[in-house]
Please model this.
Amino acid sequence: MQVRQCAQQDVFCPVFEACNLVKSYHVGNVPIQALKGVSLCVQRGEFVAILGASGSGKSTFMNLVGCLDRPTSGSYLFLDQTVQSLSSDRLAALRNKHIGFVFQHFHLLPRLTALENVALPLLYAGYPRAQRNEMARQVLQLVGLSERIQHIPAQLSGGQQQRVAIARALVNTPDLILADEPTGNLDSYTRSEIMALLQSLHQRGLTIMLVTHDPEVAVYAPHRIYFRDGFIVEEQLFAQQYAAEDTIHVASEHSERT
Ligand SMILES: Nc1ncnc2c1ncn2[C@@H]1O[C@H](COP(=O)(O)OP(=O)(O)OP(=O)(O)O)[C@@H](O)[C@H]1O
Ligand SMILES: [Mg+2]
Model:
């Protein structure tokens, strides 16, 4: 898999810069301020976890970062482009080309095979069929699903479906992977497997930001951000990366014993 990397690893190389983002919703006449001034800069090659209680603004922030929505105020730069000034079409194009999304409920099309699901973004991007299938095959191999490419989602386990979803997010060689509770629907062993996969992708240079309420998932990310009530209340940076393989080893011993 190709990963876009900084030409010079030492230079300041942000994928996005959010500055004082405010997001307000209106339900009837009642205003709800979901974000109250959030600033965050994520560099190329980072692995970031967003944590916080339900309703603290995590998904709202992800939606702004993923160019799915625009802030009420503040500025948001994605790959040096000011998102507020882009038309909806330009925003969609930016999203499709540069961001891969992974969701808690996988969001696969039920009648399409794993290969067809993964190849779908390439169809929208205008690639010819043979190239689409070849690229999809390669990423499915990367996530360990070469043997399941002709299976439809109902014929796959939850963990395998999430691998297909991750492969689909990767197929366009995005600059950023955004994952909202990617392990929320999985058991603890499968959760460790998916986190090990994301960690190995990060080690290949991919930039990843995930939302989780689970501290055991957040340990995989060296950069952790804590949200509370629409604010960032704490930021932690760790030099050492948690060893995913150890968790899988321990989880596997545990499942053999029980
Ligand atoms: N489309 C919307 N319209 C109105 N209010 C919204 C909307 N989306 C979110 N909110 C409100 O904004 C606040 C933040 O919501 P958000 O979904 O970002 O929380 P979250 O941290 O992702 O929570 P969870 O962990 O439960 O997913 C909540 O009070 C929520 O009710
Ligand atoms: Mg949420």
Q: What stands out?
A: Residues 1-10, 246-258 have pLDDT under 50 and may be disordered.
